[in-house]
Amino acid sequence: MSEHKVAITSKSQGMKSEIEAGKHSLTIDEPKQMGGTDEGADPLATLLGSLAGCETVVANMVAKEMNFDLQSISFDINGTLDMRGLMGTADVKPYFDTVNIKAEVETSEPQERIEELQEIVDQRCPVFTTLKAAGVTLNVDWQKA
Prior knowledge:
With 145 residues, the chain is α+β, with helices and mostly antiparallel strands.
């Protein structure tokens, strides 16, 4: 087994977290109406950003493996959740119910190959598969740009 460890450190002040991941920094915060200082994206938007980033990385890896002409890929992702779970209501899950993923793939490849790429990427992307394992409904639409 080839194990890869992922690690970060975080220091917080109120709702704001200053995160260090190797030589990179990231600020996660909440908007002022949620009690934050609005100095960074909120954790849920950051999770969706992680999904887009992970799918991009895996798409580039898989495209090389399958000799796919991937010129670029752009994502438009949104998610919905029942805020009652976050606020502590019992029996309401505090995470996304649904995540909608729209990708525009710039390529010379036909739509059938785009769908093949998407299927493999979604099987191998750690963030996508984590959401899927949590029972989040994932609506995926990859189209040629």
